[in-house]
Each structure stands twice: as structure tokens, then as C-alpha cells.
Design goal:
Layout: H1 3-15, H2 20-30, H3 34-39, H4 42-45, H5 48-52, E1 57-66, E2 72-83, E3 89-95, H6 101-117, E4 123-129, H7 138-152, E5 161-164, H8 171-185, H9 209-224, E6 233-237, H10 241-252, E7 256-261, E8 265-268, H11 275-284, H12 292-295, E9 300-303, E10 319-322, H13 331-339, E11 344-346, H14 355-363, E12 367-369, H15 371-374, H16 377-391, H17 397-421, H18 428-446
Parallel strand pairs: 3-4, 3-5, 6-7, 6-10, 10-11, 11-12
Antiparallel strand pairs: 1-2, 2-4, 7-8, 8-9
Helix pairs in contact: 1-2, 2-6, 6-18, 7-8, 9-10, 9-16, 9-17, 13-14, 16-17, 17-18
């Protein structure tokens, strides 16, 4: 790292000492930008990187709501509007007990580069709350969402900031949020939220987009390295939206998915995961992955043990697709994956690997598809949803899916070219960081010191 990058990183660490996830995301990006920054000494004069790592705006607010027992509860809400240099802020809302400012900032920072890579005019933002939707009734979910949007609506709009779903925020939550926005603002502004139902401005292929996009990127990455998906085996951490549709698309390419998981443990099915059963458990019953054994008694279930490698990563496979949450794969887990013969890792979740884990796997020849590129399919189709809302028109599933496929091909090509241009070989993490950064940097320079 050159002296300017080191200075920016040290200053960022000093200012954000209690935000480890955010610092991890910043360090991963900065340590790959050396050759770009060396070629542009003017960046230091205009403090471009200092501005890049500081959010344009952080909004935090209380969210009071009433549960079914008549008790008043209070949660904390966030929206981090990190960079609007190339378009309105765009990024999901996460409802999960782990949500804090550090996680919101890391997600928003990653979103800046992810959105840049799509080639679409969208800036980076993220938001959410430490509210836990698990175990809540529909009425409680609605009560919370209406309270959350009552405050959030002051800061969003289709040309300002366009939230979407993330962990804990699916079609149900988006519907309640959109209804409250319409109620307060008295306007039918379909483009203010994405991930909506088809009946009120949603896009076909949006639920599938992140998982499908991950496999489109993996297909291109393996092809560029004289490999293919056909005949490979895979393990998938998670069993939510991204994991389910990654599994579906992987199976369509001839991949045998051996295992899927949730926070409690994983199921292993040597015949290949029966996705219909997983979808019934998770999308209809909202149950636990262990219930898979009720209809597939020959499958095996292994419970996770606190402080130990998640069970799903102990299963031998060619491909690992972490689609759960951040820092799911640490250095110890990475060593197990390498030992078990994994040839490629596709990051379906946001920052699912620690920096040390990524470096170790790359040093052992494992191909890593970085999250900010590989899981960009979701936000790409969200931007396509915005386009359809603006036109008051809907594309078919096949049309959206084809556009998604093309976007993911172009994202991979951008990462590949940037990596080669700056002598990073097949380090697609560096390629994604550089390709995403260059567009944002040019926009920031053009718009002056703001």
C-alpha cells in the first residue's frame, strides 16, 4: 500500500474504532487500489479517498411499535446514504438482531462498488433495523414496518434513495413499507421501493435475481479458467432467498448440490438436495432446515457448534457458495475448504469471507467470485424494476432474465479486464474493486469537492 492509501486507512481506523465490519470492508478495497492511485496522484490533492470512505449521510432513528400483547417495543432504525455520485442511493433494508451502525456502513460501502459494477445509474446505500421478524405475527410485522417507514419516508424517493429487501425483508415487508409510504406521501411512487409484488409494480425474476446472477458469474469465471459447472458438486450455506435460487440455477447447470444450511445446522443429501422440500420449509412453513429429514429420512443433519466451523463447510464438494451472512468463512474454515478440494467459492452473501480467508484461498489456487460482483444480480434487477416503473411497462420473465445474464457477463468481463490491466491475474476481488472504483472516482472528480 502506498503512503496515501496507508494514511487514509489509518485515519479511517482511528475515526471508526468500534466498527470492525466497516473497517474490514474498507481495508479489503484500499489494499487493492495501489496501482490505480499511483497512476492518479491528483486523488490525494482533492482528498478523493478520504471522501470515498466517509458516508454522505447517516440517518438513525427510533422505531416504536406495539406487539400483539399491547406492549410497546422500541427498535433502532438506520439508513446510510453512502455515495450518490452515479445515481440515487440504492440498497436493501435488513431486519435482523445483529444490525448496528458498523454493519450498515460496511453494507452501504460495498453497495457503492457493487452498483457501479452493474453499469446502471445507481449510487450506494443501505439500511435496516435490529428488529427480528422471526416469530412475529403478520400484524406485528405490519406494525413495525409502518412505524419504520413513518420516519424513513422523509429521506427517500425514486430520484433520491430507493431501498429494497435484504435479510429479514421479503415481499411481505416491502408491501407493508410501500403501503405506509403511499399513505403518508399521498402519491403512487412505484419506483421508491424495489422487490415489490407483481400486482403493484414489481418485476418478474426479481426474487430469483441474486441467486441466478451468482451462478451466471460463476459460469463465466469457471469458463475463463477452462472449467465448467457441469458435473460439479456444491455446498450452499444458507437457505433463504439467495441460497434457494442459487441452488435452483446450479442444478439447472448440472451441479449436484449436496448440502444447505441455516443458523442451526445443515442437511446433507448424497442424492442431491430436493429444492422443492427446502422451499416448502423456508418459504411456506418458515421452519428450520432440520425438517428436511421428515420427508427425506436418508439425509443427514449436523448441528452447528458455537465457536466451530459451520457444519456445511465440512462437507467435501467442488464449489462452496456462502449465501448466508457476513464473515461466515474465516481462515480456519478456508483451510478446511482447501483441504476438501474446493476449486471455487462464489460469494452470494455480502462479505461472507474474512480478508484472511480470501487471501488464503487465493494463495492455494481457489477461484473467488467476490460478493460485490457475484451477488450484484439482485440490485441489477432492482434497477431494471425502477426502469419498468418509470416506463409503466413490464418485461417478461425471459426478457428480465436475459438482461440479468448479460449484466453479469459484463460484470465479470469488467472484473477480468481490470485485474489483467493492473497485473492481478485472476484475482477477481482486486478486479471488482478497481472496476467499481474507477467509475465512482471519475464521477466524483467531475462533480467537484462535495
Amino acid at each position: 500500500m502506498n503512503s496515501y492509501l496507508e494514511k487514509v486507512l489509518e485515519e479511517t481506523k482511528a475515526k471508526n474504532q468500534c466498527e470492525p465490519e466497516f473497517l474490514q470492508a474498507v481495508e479489503e478495497v484500499l489494499e487493492t487500489l495501489n496501482p490505480v492511485v499511483d497512476a492518479h496522484p491528483e486523488y490525494q490533492k482533492i482528498a478523493l479517498l478520504e471522501r470515498l470512505v466517509e458516508p454522505e449521510r447517516i440517518i438513525s432513528f427510533r422505531v416504536p411499535w406495539v406487539n400483539d400483547k399491547g406492549e410497546t417495543k422500541v427498535n433502532k432504525g438506520y439508513r446510510v446514504q453512502f455515495s450518490g455520485a452515479i445515481g440515487p442511493y440504492k440498497g436493501g433494508l435488513r431486519f435482523h438482531p445483529s444490525v448496528n451502525q458498523s454493519i450498515m456502513k460496511f453494507l452501504a460501502f460495498e453497495q457503492v462498488f457493487k452498483n457501479s459494477l452493474t453499469g446502471l445509474p445507481i449510487g450506494g446505500g443501505k439500511g435496516g433495523s435490529d428488529f427480528d421478524p422471526k416469530g412475529k405475527s403478520d400484524n406485528e410485522i405490519m406494525s413495525f414496518c409502518q412505524s419504520f417507514m413513518t420516519e424513513l419516508c422523509k429521506y427517500i424517493g425514486h430520484d433520491v434513495d430507493v431501498p429494497a429487501g435484504d435479510i429479514g425483508v421479503g415481499g411481505r415487508e416491502i408491501g407493508y413499507l410501500f403501503g405506509q409510504y403511499r399513505r403518508i406521501r399521498n402519491v403512487y411512487e412505484a419506483g421508491v421501493l424495489t422487490g415489490k409484488g407483481l400486482e403493484y409494480g414489481g418485476s418478474l425474476a426479481r426474487p430469483e435475481a441474486t441467486g441466478y446472477g451468482l451462478l451466471y458469474f460463476m459460469r463465466e469465471m469457471l469458463k475463463a479458467n477452462n472449467q465448467s459447472l457441469q458435473g460439479k458438486t456444491a455446498i450452499i450455506s444458507g437457505s433463504g432467498n439467495v441460497a434457494i435460487y442459487a441452488c435452483q440455477k446450479a442444478q439447472s447447470y448440472g451441479v449436484k448440490v449436496l448440502a444447505m444450511s441455516d443458523s442451526n445446522g445443515c442437511v446433507y443429501d448424497e442424492k442431491g438436495i430436493d429444492l422443492a422440500t427446502v422451499k416448502e420449509i423456508k418459504e411456506v412453513k418458515r421452519g428450520r432446515i432440520k425438517e428436511y429429514l421428515e420427508t427425506h429420512p436418508s439425509a443427514k443433519y449436523t448441528e452447528n457448534v458455537a465457536g466451530q466451523t459451520p457444519a456445511v463447510y465440512t462437507i467435501k464438494a467442488d464449489l462452496a457458495l456462502p449465501c448466508a451472512t457476513q464473515n461466515d468463512i474465516n481462515l480456519e474454515t478456508a483451510k478446511i475448504l482447501v483441504q476438501n478440494g474446493v476449486i471455487a467459492v462464489g460469494e452470494g452473501a455480502n462479505m461472507p469471507c474474512t480478508n484472511e480467508a480470501e487471501k488464503y484461498m487465493q494463495s492455494k489456487g481457489v477461484l473467488v467470485a467476490p460478493a460485490k460482483a457475484a451477488n450484484a444480480g439482485g440490485v441489477a434487477v432492482s434497477a431494471l424494476e425502477m426502469s419498468q416503473n418509470s416506463m409503466r411497462y413490464s418485461w417478461t420473465f425471459e426478457e428480465v432474465d436475459q438482461k440479468l445474464d448479460n449484466i453479469m457477463i459484463n460484470i465479470f468481463k469488467s472484473c477480468e479486464k481490470a485485474a489483467k490491466d493492473y497485473n492481478y491475474g485472476n484475482n477477481y476481488i482486486a478486479g471488482a474493486n478497481i472496476a467499481g472504483f474507477r467509475k465512482v472516482a471519475k464521477a466524483m472528480r467531475a462533480q467537484g469537492i462535495i
